[in-house]
Amino acid sequence: MLSLNDLSIEDHSNNKKDEYLGFRNRTEKKELIVDIQGFDDEDINTYSNHNGVFDQYTDHGYMIHRVTTKGHLTKKKLVFDLYKSYLICHKKKVGFSEFDEIRIGQKTNVFNHYKSKKTSVHHSEDCELSFSLMHSNNLKSLDFVCSSVKERIEIVSALYLVIKQSRSSNNELGFIRKQWDYFGKETLGPNDLRRLLSRLNYSASHGHANELLKAVDKNGDRVLDFIEFSELFKLLRRRPEIKLLLNKYSKTLEGQLSISEMIDFFKYEQSEEWTEEQCKHLIENSTHDTTIQTMSHEHMEDYLSSQLNNDVLDPKAKTIYMDTNQPISNYFINSSHNTYLAGHQLQGISSSEMYVLAMKKNCKCVELDVWDGHDGDPIIFHGHTLTSQIKFKHVIQSIKDYGFENSPYPIVLSLETHCAPAQQVKMIEHMVAIFGDMLAKPFTEEDVDKVKTLPTLEQLKYKVILKGHYNCRMVSERNQVTEVIEEENEEEETDNIHVKEMKPQKMLVAPEYAKWIYFLTKGFKSVEESNTLPPWVMHSFSEAKVKELVKANGTYSFIDMFTRRQLRVFPKGTRVNSSNYDPVPGWTMGAQIVALNQQTSSEPMWLNAGMFADNGGCGYVLKSPCLLPSTVSGEFNYFDPSEPTRHASSKYSKLIINIISARQLPKYTKTEGGEVIDPFVTVSIHGSQLDDREFKTKVIDDNGFNPYWGEEFEFPLIHDQVAMLLIRVDDKDKFKRQNRIGHYCIKVSNIRNGYRVIKLENGYGNQIPMCNLLCKFTLVPN
């Protein structure tokens, strides 16, 4: 029986065999996040090898207290099924490789519910005895309370080892082993081979299956063993188009590139300047042999197919390379609307886990819709709807715990406060207690004549900024509870929702609350009035209102107005199904905070992911020079994306894309009978309306494993600085429907010239394992 003693964090027992079979042993899944307190990997290995202590989890299971979704503590059996790679707890079964995070303590919605129900039988030390296993893209959890710290350490250690081992096997060889094991046979004949190829999204006739079998059947027994099938898998994955390309440069030795030929290839095909030393280093890394002086075509193909080495995204964009000493108003901010909702706007679930998920995506502006709680403690939910409710303090704690995990730059809390003064004070008490000195201190009236620009990102590091209504400033000055009236032109985010509404005309505001509001949202009256306001006063418009105001005031005056202050754009209220609007028009107008329903996977969110993959994914992207104040450029900065005139910052006049081929596209999840897909690719530019274009490739019938297109498209560009490229792969089914398989989005300014590999993403924004698209990109300079 396989036991945990067979598992080791540094287990390389299969590396030589993997290398022999020609597979690159790497995982495509995001790294497992783990918070294991008090010990390191060496300690975990010690636990795992200590007298088979974990065998109890694999044999008959182990009884443990699990917290239910209703917050009740029940004793259930926990079983590690190492053969099928599942964790089983009572009726719940989750694959080990599907776990995203091991979370120590009580930091989930389920535990929040549990703590609210705690009775005298529960103890305060429960927290250090507890842990959670996050799965389903961190939206669901399995939550446990152990009887001792020792038990918690042992169980978490075992889980860590098994999950890590399972995820590390999710590579190319692990994938093909899983497909092979589906049949449970030692060898496969032609019919079995056809069925297995169909599972791999490759359609083969009887005759073609026989030809493939003969090509790798080394002993002539007319069946394939695993090694022979692995050779076939390798053969099908090869890209003959790359071999033809490399043949142009292989003039010294067939099938090999000399160092000088490698230098020429990188220069003329990839627009890269390589040295001899760099080429030698690449050869050594590929061959593990310091004596070899040439690069085989197979190794060069592996290099070109590797996202680690040959990603289309400029490596610079993966770092925080932009100037962070400019005012916060000079940056686009990754922003979420109705962050608390996990689904429908009227009947969906509110969850503090949505804030954790937003923080992990480096979302730096989140919304909190706060109402009076029946027990005197503020709650968050979508008011006047059937959405569920969560504690305000739980959300604040989640933001504190995860808000700066990946990026030190400020978090903006967009507060929609509907509480009475007493619970407004309670809100501030919670935030002061939890955030402490991280809570940004607002400007005062004394700063009106002194401060002309907002602080920089560097100055606001690790700060939490509160955004609220403009009239809060008046309350703060009076230092007493004051009744304020909403301004006539201030938009409400509940506009047009067809439910019973109680749109507030008046509300009481506590001075203790008002004095902490940093960004003040004021109703828009005119461009002239807005230009006289202090920089910390901002506007908030629905997507429809932005179009209306641009039409009334002119594009340039609108852009110029928001070079000095913040603008937040949010979805119109009729989007009750949490659909989204196109964020690109808002960005091209200079809107810093374009808030989207980030719980919904759709084209607007793909564009958002492409925008904020820039600058190291830190949540802040410096605006293009055409959208910055004249004071930054040193000269008058006129830009109008509706005019066919290039701005001085424009670099490229054309983007040429050759969609070449794909490898291992997954099947569409709803395809009838799991038949092989018929893929095609759509490429489109999103930016100025003058640049927006879309092209589609031909449909490749019955081949999702290694489809080849070889089609070239040209995109003339005028305003390349604000252009985004979106690539999506769809399956055209027998009903002529287009079913999305995967997508990828990138800023045009972040594209690398040459032959590049694209890792397609699924609806969660995670890379699809073993799946990629090979394209050639050419950016033509002005």
Automatic annotation (TrEMBL):
- Name the needed cofactors: Ca(2+)
Q: Which GO terms describe its molecular function?
A: calcium ion binding; phosphatidylinositol-4,5-bisphosphate phospholipase C activity
Q: Which GO annotations describe the biological process of this protein?
A: lipid catabolic process; phosphatidylinositol-mediated signaling; release of sequestered calcium ion into cytosol
Stretches assigned to the EF-hand domain: 204-239
Q: Which CDD domains match?
A: C2_PLC_like, EFh_PI-PLC, PI-PLCc_eukaryota
Q: Report the superkingdom from the record.
A: Eukaryota
Keywords carried by this UniProt record:
Calcium, Hydrolase, Lipid degradation, Lipid metabolism, Transducer
Q: Which InterPro entries match?
A: C2_dom, C2_domain_sf, EF-hand-dom_pair, EF_Hand_1_Ca_BS, EF_hand_dom, PH-like_dom_sf, PI-PLC_fam, PLC-like_Pdiesterase_TIM-brl
Q: Which residues form the PI-PLC Y-box domain?
A: 513-627
Q: Which Pfam families match?
A: C2, EF-hand_like, PI-PLC-X, PI-PLC-Y
Where's the C2 domain?
640-762
Q: Which reaction does it catalyse?
A: a 1,2-diacyl-sn-glycero-3-phospho-(1D-myo-inositol-4,5-bisphosphate) + H2O = 1D-myo-inositol 1,4,5-trisphosphate + a 1,2-diacyl-sn-glycerol + H(+)
Name of the protein in question: Phosphoinositide phospholipase C
Q: Source taxonomy lineage?
A: Eukaryota, Amoebozoa, Evosea, Eumycetozoa, Dictyostelia
